[in-house]
Design a protein that fits this description.
- The chain has 205 residues and is mainly alpha-helical.
- It folds into two domains: 21-87, Helix Hairpins (Orthogonal Bundle), CATH 1.10.287.990; 99-204, Iron/manganese superoxide dismutase, C-terminal domain (minor pseudopilin epsh fold, 3-Layer(bab) Sandwich).
- Helix content is 49%, strand content 11%.
- It contains eight helices and three strands.
- The protein has helices spanning 21-43, 54-59, 66-87, 99-109, 112-125, 171-174, 178-185, 191-202; strands spanning 130-137, 140-147, 158-164.
- It has a three-stranded antiparallel sheet, sandwiched between helices.
- Helix 1 (21-43) runs antiparallel to helix 3 (66-87) and helix 4 (99-109) packs across helix 5 (112-125).
- It is globular.
- Bound molecules: manganese (III) ion.
- The site of manganese (III) ion has 7 residues, from helix 1.
């Protein structure tokens, strides 16, 4: 089974004015598709790895043969990261999380605005291309940053949400001003989906 580009649950222009139509279109159809194509090529002859579950593939990255490991980190990571990214955004969202996720964020970071400040700081500090994540590990939240297309699952940390700070994610609209992109991005954060990801990691644990 080859990996395939997931369909978006909204139109390419739906996240305007915060994320523009052209960026969304290129990001999904060119960048994300490119990672998938290269991942499929890397796995030719190695189809036993992952069993078409991208999370499992990335979690067990150490088990892959050396000659394809780096390509799978880059392109499998790219596929996993973007698949989550499209889902944790939606039009008409933003605001604040609810329920146990809100409680957990508040008890970890003292309040929601402090969490946002810390997340933004990490996004601005990420040198070059990468991602900033809210992760959960043994029921504890933390903010971590990774380079390139690395995913926290490679360190067995579960990503609840993450922001793509590669220039391809914001350059057309925000040019070099990453801070403006991060500020705008909060308006399209789909907390309901992130709450679901949080619940799946905390129930029965
Ligand atoms: Mn990207």
């Amino acid at each position: 089974m080859k990996y395939e580009l997931p369909k978006l649950r909204y139109e390419y222009q739906a996240l305007e004015p915060y994320i523009d139509l052209t960026t969304m279109t290129i990001h999904h159809t060119k960048h994300h598709q490119g990672y998938i194509d290269k991942l499929n090529t890397a796995l030719e002859g190695n189809e036993e790895f992952g069993g078409n579950n991208i999370e499992e593939l990335i979690k067990s990255i150490d088990k892959l043969p050396d000659e394809i490991q780096k390509r799978v980190i880059n392109n499998g990571g790219g596929h996993l990261n973007h698949s989550m990214f499209w889902e944790i955004m939606a039009p008409g969202t933003g605001g604040e999380p609810h329920g146990t996720l809100k409680e957990s964020i508040t008890s970890t970071f003292s309040d929601f605005n402090s969490f946002k400040d810390k997340f933004k700081e990490a996004a601005l500090e990420r040198f070059g291309s990468g991602w900033v994540w809210l992760i959960i590990n043994n029921n504890k939240l933390d903010i971590v940053s990774t380079a390139n297309q690395d995913n926290p699952l490679m360190q067995q940390l579960y990503p609840l949400m993450g922001i793509d700070v590669w220039e391809h994610a914001y350059y057309l609209k925000y040019q070099n001003i990453r801070a403006e992109y991060v500020d705008a991005w909060w308006n399209v954060v789909n907390w309901r989906e992130i709450e679901n990801r949080f619940k799946k990691q905390t129930v029965h644990k």
